[in-house]
Amino acid sequence: MSRQVRDVMSRGAVAVEPMTSVARVARLMREQDVGDVLVTYDRDLFGVLTDRDIVVRAVAGDRDPNTVTAGSVCTRPPVITLSPDDTTDHAVELMRRHAVRRLPVVESGGCPVGIVSLGDLAATEDPRSALADISRAEPNC
User: Based on the structure, what is the number of domains in the chain?
Assistant: First the structure.
């Protein structure tokens, strides 16, 4: 049964400005127990930075996490986004088509309001699935 994205998304996603150091972003990810942050500039979505982006684009590229910025290693627009009014079925279809596990949710003016993850969808659409169980588990850090 499809619902609206607004009903399953994580609100108040962690956001940073493009000039934030990757080291600072990594600490925020640890503190907030998230695997991605929205990179915003003047309330608009500038990009998305994932833990994998930090590893592949910064650390594995021998770039100093204290000086490399979120804006220089994030995935830049066109980033696939959802509206809060989109359906969860549409979110699943976009994740499949683009092979992503998280999608920013933005209002019509481009202002980010949250993130919907594969785990959010699993917990809502199939609460007894292994993915839903894993998504509800306590962090292991």
Answer: 1
Among 9-13, 18-22, 88-92, name the one with the lowest average pLDDT.
Answer: 9-13
The CATH code of the domain that includes 93 is 3.10.580.10
CA angle, 78 as apex, 121 and 85 as ends, to 5°?
40
Identify whether 141 is part of a domain: no
Place of tokens 């998230």: 34
- E strands in 42-88: 44-50
**Residue 75 domain-assigned (yes or no):** yes
Place of tokens 């607004």: 6
pLDDT exceeds cutoff 70 at 71 = yes
pTM of the full structure: 0.81
CA distance 29 to 17: 14
